[in-house]
Amino acid sequence: MREALERLSDLQRRLADAAEETDLPEDLERLCVTAAAGQLHLDFYGDPFEEAFQELLAVIVTPEVSAALASLTLSGSDEGANGTRNWDLSLLGEGDALFPRLRALSIQQTQPADHNRSIIAAVYDEEGVLARILERAPALESLVTPSAPDAEFFRVGGRPLRFLSVDAGYDTQGFIRNLARSSCFPGLRCLEFGEYKETYTDDYAESCTPFPDYEELFQSEAFQPVRRFVWRNPACSTAEIGKLKALRPDLQVLVVRTSAEYVR
After folding, report:
1. Would you place residue 14 in the very low, low, confident or very high pLDDT band (cuts 50, 70, 90)?
2. How far apart are the C-alpha atoms of 196 and 168, rounded to whole Å?
3. Considering only Cβ atoms within 10 Å of each terminal Cβ, which end of the chain, N or C, has fewer?
4. Domain CATH for 177
5. CA 147 to CA 154: how far, in whole Å?
6. What are residue 167's phi and psi, to 5 degrees?
7. What is the helix (H) or strand (E) element at residue 55, kind and residue range?
8. What's the total number of domains in the chain?
9. Does residue 1 have a pLDDT over 80?
């Protein structure tokens, strides 16, 4: 643990040394490290395109850090390229790194006023990285992600997830249908899902989750343990939402709608 803390402290110092007096708080890259009960809790605020983020990942996959990591939070200012902010987590799903104590993983989701769409990808596609991380984190209980995982995520095996918050990002990857047909999260109590929201595209509606997928989910065994469903920007009608609620009258359903447009 001592060596791990030294490496993390060194990264903290270098981030502090790189700060300039004129930097605004939202522009300051920083790393918060909390060591408690033999476990590490890391909270990184910065730019996923910059060297510090890659350095952090390189430290995380070292045996001394990966074995002690209990929570990881990644966030940053609204910076991106071509309207996209990529959190490339490929390194966490490669090699021999295991995260036996990791219980909470949170990657900042896109906020309504953001200029850039946050996703998990090396370029634009998630490419199964969330499944590979989940495979290495058998104790994971909470996951917040700005991109939907692919079907492999549901084939990893049983996991103690209790809280799952997913934004579709650039591709739903059949998330709702895949969850409905899964049996890997028997302890899931709260599900949050943000629908595909690239409303400027010509095929926007075709890229959204089909209503029959939601019907299948609400009637599935996989969804029975869920007690609260937060549904962001559904493409369904009010009548369709009511039909789903009738299938699970015991379920707390919160619909959240956001919209934004530029004035020209």
Report:
1. confident
2. 5
3. C
4. 3.80.10
5. 15
6. -100, 145
7. helix 51-60
8. 1
9. no
How would DSSP label each residue in 213-226?
HHHHHHTSTTTTT-
Asked if residue 27 belongs to a domain, the reply is no
Alpha helix positions (H), 138-250: 175-180, 204-207, 211-218, 238-247
Q: Nearest to residue 11, comparing CAs of 50, 69, 66?
A: 50
Residue 264 maps to a domain: no
Supply the pLDDT for residue 203. 87
Burial of 200 (0-12, 13-18, 19+ CB in 10 A): exposed
> What pLDDT shows up at residue 87?
97
Q: Is the pLDDT of residue 88 over 80?
A: yes
9 vs 1: CA distance, rounded Å: 12
d(C-alpha 89, C-alpha 127), whole Å: 11
Measured distance CA(24)–CA(22) in Å, rounded: 6
Q: What percentage of the chain exceeds 70 in pLDDT?
A: 100
pTM of the entire predicted model: 0.95
| Residue 56 is assigned to a structural domain of this protein | no
Residue 101 has which token pair?
A: 């104590």
Mean residue pLDDT of the chain comes to: 94
pLDDT digits (tens, 9 = 90+) for 20-70: 877 788 888 999 999 999 999 999 999 999 999 999 999 999 999 999 999
- Confirm whether 51 is domain-assigned: no
Amino acid at 211: F
Tokens read off for 92: 């966490």
Q: Which residue range(s) make up the domain with 95?
A: 78-256
What is the Cβ-side half-sphere exposure of residue 5, based on CA atoms within 13 angstroms?
A: 10
Alpha carbon of 186 to those of 60, 219, 226: distances in Å?
29, 15, 9
